[in-house]
Amino acid sequence: MVWMASQRPTSVSVRTRSPKLVGREKELGTIVEVVAERPAVVLIEGEAGMGKTRLLTELAGRPELDGVRVLTGTCQPLRDPFPYGPILEALRSLKDPLGPLSPVAGVLRPLLPELAEILPPQPEPLTDPAAERHLRFRAIRELLGACGPALLLLDDLHWADEDTRDLLRFIVSMMPPELAVVVAYRGPFGSSFRSAEHARVTLGPLDVSAVRRLATGILDLPRVSDEFAAKLHESTAGIPFVAEETLRALKESAGSQPLGETLTDRLLESLEVPVLLREAMTERLDTLSAPAVKLARAAAVLGVPIEAKVIGRLAGLTGDDLRSALLVAMDGGVLGEVDEDRYGFRHPLARKAVYDTISGPERTMLHGEALSALAGLPVPPVLQLARHARSAGRLDQWQHYAEAAADQATARGDTSLAIDVLQSLLAAGKLAEADVARLATKLSQIALRGFRRDVIATLEHVLEDPPHDPATRGTIRLSLGSLLVRTVGQLGRGRVEVEKAIGELVDRPELAARGINLLAQPIDGLTSLAWHQRWSRRVEDVFDQLTDPELRLALTVDRIASRAHTGDGTAWAEFEALPEETSSVAERVQLARLWCNLADGQSWLGHLGRADRLVTEGTRRAIDAGALYAAGLVRGTRVRLDWVTGRWDGLAEKAEALRDKYSDLGPIVQETSLVLGALAAVRGEFAAAHRHLAETSVLAPEHGAIPVVLSAAGVLVRVKLATGDLAGAVTVAEEGMTVARRKGVWVWAADLVPAAAEAYAQDGRWDEADGVVEEFARGIEGRDAPAAEAALLAGRAALLAARGKHQAATVGFEQARERYAELPMPYPATGAQERAALSRLATGDRSAIEELACAAESYERLGATRDAGRCRHQLRENGAWAPSQRGRRGYGRELSPREREVARMLADGRTNREIADGLFLSPRTVEQHVAKVLRKLGARSRSDVARHLSTYALP
Questions:
Q1: β partners of residue 343
Q2: Residues paired with residue 524 on neighbouring β-strands, in sequence order
Q3: Which helix (H) or strand (E) covers residue 182, if one does?
Q4: Would the CA dihedral through 693, 695, 696, 697 be positive or negative?
Q5: Is 577 strand, coil or helix?
Q6: With contact defined as beta carbons under 8 Å apart, do 113 and 120 qualify?
Q7: How far apart are CA 401 and CA 415, in angstroms?
Q8: Which residues neighbour 699 within 8 Å (Cβ) at sequence distance 6 or greater?
Q9: Is 308 within 8 Å of 341 (Cβ atoms)?
Q10: Residue whose C-alpha is closest to residue 84's, from 178, 162, 190, 158
């Protein structure tokens, strides 16, 4: 019987490459500069797959070389290469008239019959072969010289025969004056031309940034996550060919699954090795000796870089035989020394290509031998042992080692790995009930450090089997409820599961305390603060009975954070009294949570300096402790903090990337959508603002984080006022105020109240306008909330202005501006500055014009283009047009800042009238901007702008 390697399914593979050159722009620019000054010789060297051929292709099409004749030839990997093959291939394309040729050129007629009409008659052959060869060399050089300005591109010269190499040395030793030669090769070939070269370009691996751009181009995505780019770079070693082939395989295998966010080892392992990559590795294996092939296959089974003696044991090689085989495998480009005396493959797909050549029975045998070899090491690598045990079919050993690997990962804070291993064990479906209960309990506990939606399904499946005892069910259900609470749209369901879990945990008071504590947290949903406070009192009742230090710290952390969120000033003092460091990983997780949650609370209250420091330190602590959920949440806080403090450069891109990465995590989706909606609003992109704000749960507050919901309501009220939808603005204000009253935490309404008061006042509903502001004043009394205090000043000033009491309004707005500026919150500070200036103008004080112009400048620096346009419109209305003090600059083919705003609005489907309204411009001015945008982007129509803008490199 003949055993075959695993069979691959029938498939069609279409080669995909990046639509534009990535990561080699500097090298290409240098080569273009060198070959423009002929004669010139450029050497391009690099390992296989580094992009030498692509670089030559891009060079041939450069517009700087228009008018230069481009001749291209490639060496082929033949057993007996044709003499002069690549140079003759390049010359065969000559058709245009050439310069004068001497009779010597006729010697090329037998070699280039395609040029019979161009070449002079063939001279009599010489009897001396060396003289005949010299004559041939002279003729080729003369023919190249007759081409005029010419560029000779020769690829894969490491495969050239000796005659071709000698001919090339002859040409470059006395170059025709208008000729440039660029050769690409790998290996030591270039040393022969060192004396003649004008430039040498060595291509190394791409960096992470270039790999990211490669991914966006091939996957046709606007962005990929940092984690995706880093993993892709790691798994492909930055080799362009390998990265392109991996991305193509990912794209073909993705189906309806989203790409560009996560790239796991499991996903990479599941990929079919791309055809070209598989063929390249097969060709390399074919050149190796039999012992070297055995060594490569053993390394493929081991799967990770490891000592040579371990690989040799699997391959049955020792001593000189091992050393010899290892050298052959390394010289053949199959294996490499990854670290000192640790050998392996350069990237995972190379390993998989070799692994796929091993038959099933041989794999099983080798995995069993690997299990024996690794188990005897001084420190057994339990994760690798688990993989080998499973592949060898030894399931009991697999379960033992996998659980040990999960325990190790948990202890060192590698949350994601621990979850992966426990999930794989529970998915096997062949475990005893006690094993399922134990593993599910471990998974439920570690899952709370991170957020993985797939864990929810696993825990639900476990709970479907009723035999588990109440305490086990309660433990698992508590974690399930906690995960659901964090999931978009699942808040209510999650709280129901938590309450069930508390009932099941009557004999486990410490675990029940965690559930009680979860229900005490007031941030989410419409349940009142009083309801949460009842659960808080239950926490206080059981706290002194608890002995677990990690649990006591967890409850303390949540008590401080929830009090801080509601504006209780004593929370900060209690935070400062806590120790900064603890010994156990679990306690470090709790402290990291405190720093991250407290950062969020301080940012909503307006303690922005504190919040900034807490975000930075909390991020570090969360990552170090493996608290992935907290690390994700604090990134959302950072995005919103950047919005509040006016750090808007690149903020929209950062927020979108974060929202895409955590698309199932409710708090991050809501927070980033708030920032994106607010940014769109200040740019006058009102349709986009509506779209983003709808994702904040402002329309479904029972599922949302209430601080976000109320802030989003404030933005939405201002958007509707700006678009003339007064009825809509009042409706949103009423709904927002209803949410604030039901929740009872008024410090969170700081963004809503001034806007709601404005809407009520414009609608002539003075009682409600006054009532909103005063209800807010009573609600924040005694609270430690500087942002709310500034908002109260702004709300009262807005009502004074609406009543025509402009002098008093001016004082109020100036006080609000000062308070906002101290925090600092530059956007509402500038808004108060603008309103103060307008109130002064209403009293006849013309000196306020300068203040209004300053507000316009401040808006413009922030990027609030619509607000800047509104101020400049007011200046024109008051007969005091003041252009930007930053002056004008020429943008050439680049889009100006204003044109970029217009382009974004065109891409969003806005009409000229809508753009004019959004940016406070005249229709004629908008028409001019639209025409410039279409011309600079090369777009054929308005509907074509979105596609061109997605690839446009903003300065």
A1: 306, 337
A2: 705
A3: strand 179-185
A4: positive
A5: helix
A6: no
A7: 17
A8: none
A9: yes
A10: 162
Amino acid letter for position 899: E
Q: For 152, phi and psi rounded to 5 degrees? A: -100, 115
Contact 99, 145 (CB under 8 A): yes
Single pTM value for the model: 0.66
Please, where are the H alpha helices in 566-700? Answer: 570-577, 585-605, 608-625, 628-644, 651-661, 666-682, 686-693
Ramachandran bin of 804, using left for φ above 0, alpha for ψ from -120 to 50, beta for the remaining angles: left
Contact (Cβ atoms closer than 8 angstroms) between residue 285 and residue 293: yes
Q: Judge contact between 173 and 149, C-beta under 8 A.
A: no
Radius of gyration of the chain measured on its C-alpha atoms: 35
Q: Per-residue pLDDT for 867 more than 70?
A: yes
Are the C-beta atoms of residues 198 and 34 closer than 8 Å to each other?
yes
- What is the spatial distance between Cα 466 and Cα 432, in angstroms, rounded to a whole number? 14
Alpha helices in 823-908 (DSSP H): 826-842, 848-862, 865-877, 897-907
Transcribe 434-453 into DSSP letters: HHHHHHHHHHHHHHTTS--H
The burial of 878, by beta-carbon neighbours within 10 Å (0-12 exposed, 13-18 middle, 19 or more buried), is given as: middle
Q: Quick check: 450 and 629 in contact, CB under 8 A? A: yes
Nearest CA to 710 out of 739, 675, 744 is that of 739
Q: Which residues contact 281 (CB under 8 A, 6 or more apart)?
A: 273, 334, 350, 353, 354
**Torsion sign over Cα 114, 116, 117, 119:** positive
CB atoms within 10 A of CB 334: 25
> Which residues 6+ apart lie within 8 Å of 439 measured at CB?
403, 422, 425, 426, 431
Closest CA to 813 of 826, 796, 825, 827: 796
C-beta pairs of 689-697 under 8 Å, 24+ apart in sequence: 689/715, 689/716, 689/719, 690/716, 690/719, 693/719, 695/669, 695/670, 696/670, 697/666, 697/670
How high does pLDDT run on average in the chain?
87
Under 8 Å between Cβ of 459 and 483: yes
- The residue with tokens 């307008």 is 838
Alpha-carbon distance of 840 to 854, in angstroms, equals 14
| pLDDT value of residue 146 | 92
pLDDT digits (tens, 9 = 90+) for 100-144: 899 999 999 999 999 988 899 999 888 888 998 999 999 999 999
Residues in the chain: 955
Which among 96, 32, 90 is positioned nearest to 63, based on CA atoms?
32
Instruction: Report whether 700 contacts 739 (CB < 8 A).
Output: no
Cα–Cα distance for residue pair 51/57, rounded to 1 Å: 10
Query: Which residues have C-beta within 8 Å of that of residue 57, sequence separation ≥ 6?
Result: none
**What does the angle CA 113 – CA 115 – CA 120 come to, to the nearest 5 degrees?**
100
pLDDT one-digit tens code per residue, 618-641: 999 999 988 888 999 999 999 999
Rounded-to-integer distance, Cα 246 and Cα 368, Å: 30
pLDDT band at 533 (very low <50, low <70, confident <90, very high): very high
Which residues, including other chains, have CB under 8 Å from residue 336's CB and lie 6 or more apart? 330, 343, 344, 345, 346
% of residues, the chain, pLDDT over 70:
91
Cα(39)–Cα(141) distance, integer angstroms: 13
DSSP reduced 3-state for 5: strand
Q: What DSSP string describes 373-442?
A: HHHTSSS--HHHHHHHHHHTT-HHHHHHHHHHHHHHHHHTT-HHHHHHHHHHHHHT----HHHHHHHHHH
